[in-house]
Amino acid sequence: MIMNMSEIDSIKSENLKLRNYISLISAEIELSQRLFEIKQNFEDSSNSQRLIVPILDRISKIKSEKEILAVELKLN
């Protein structure tokens, strides 16, 4: 099977999107774990909200980015 440059570029682009998707999954898992640890260690602390809110915001952004990539990669 001989591929032309257009097909190769398409495969490279898809590969990059898949790598990004995997990176987002890893980041989401790591941030979720950090969130769990913070909730355990700062149960009744006002500092917990200060720490938790930015992490929740980032997790939300990651989920949005993942959804966009999932659509592009036809993973849904």
Describe this structure as you would to a colleague.
The structure is a single chain. The protein is mainly alpha-helical and 76 residues long. The protein has a domain at 31-76. It contains two helices and no strands. Helix 1 (5-41) runs antiparallel to helix 2. The longest helix has 37 residues, at 5-41. The protein starts with a helix and ends with a helix. The relative contact order is 0.14.
Q: What form results from the Cα inertia axes?
A: rod-shaped
Q: Could you tell me the mean pLDDT? A: 92
The major β-sheet equals: none
The termini sit apart by 29 Å
Structural class by secondary-structure content: mainly alpha
- Assign a percent range to the helix content: over 70%
Q: List how many beta strands DSSP finds.
A: 0
| SS summary, helix count | 2
| Strand-residue proportion | under 5%
In N-to-C order, the SSE pattern is HH
Give the C-alpha Rg: 18 Å
- Give the uncertain stretches in residue-range form: none
